[in-house]
Amino acid sequence: MTVTVPTLPAPTPAAPKDTVAAPTPGTRALLAGGVLAGPLFLATVVVQQAVRDGVDARSQPMSLLSLGEAGWIQIVNFLLCGVLAIGSAFGIRRLLRGRPAGTWGPILVAAYGAALVWGGVFVTDPASGFPAGTPQGAPDPSTWSWHGTLHAFAAPAMGLALVGVCLVFSRRFLRLRRPG
Amino acid sequence: MLAWAVVAGYVLLMGAGLGAGDFRLVAAGAALPMLWVSAAIAGLLRGRFAH
């Protein structure tokens, strides 16, 4: 006689443990800066686009806000948010050292911050009718200033770094079976 | 995964914005991963993704 023993489905293995120590107050401050950097940068851009004369968000890249009388606001925005992001990279490094995303996460967040600082240090050239009196359209690259040429690297570098952060952290969340 | 959707949104909005010469779309594309990274760091701060 054959006895069939019902079998239970194999239990799902538990998500890997990745316990980290509670962040110290200093690490918390660094991380809080990173939380603030993105929204602060974007909000400052949106407000300037709404209130500054001659700004057309449709036809003008946000970097042009660094020009003109109130251009210092956008330069400070680039520098401050970049420094906050770089600081948060140190916080992430402290928290995740030796764990998933503990190496490339901070490196890429620091690159994101460095790209913002770069964009603030090397100011773009006038274009697209801003500031007032500038011809419409993008200037011929052969006429770009040295700082305008260097500025052009900021946006692609920031985009690549941000995409990299998304991918590195999504791998971490996947490993820990957490949404995100 | 939300992160992959964010990356896809970034690529689509950047492509559409640069293609159409509409920098509002470019800015919206850049905003997606910036806000996602802020949210991910906030998650670390609260310990949500840290253990």
UniProtKB/TrEMBL annotation, chain A:
InterPro entries: DUF998. The chain crosses the membrane at residues 29-51, 71-92, 104-124, 144-169. It holds the Pfam family DUF998. It comes from the Bacteria. Residues 1-21 are annotated as: Disordered. Keywords: Membrane, Transmembrane, Transmembrane helix. The keyword Transmembrane helix applies. The keyword Membrane applies. This is DUF998 domain-containing protein.
Automatic annotation (TrEMBL), chain B:
The keyword Membrane applies. This is Uncharacterized protein. It comes from Catellatospora methionotrophica. The chain crosses the membrane at residues 30-49. It comes from the Bacteria. Keywords: Membrane, Transmembrane, Transmembrane helix.
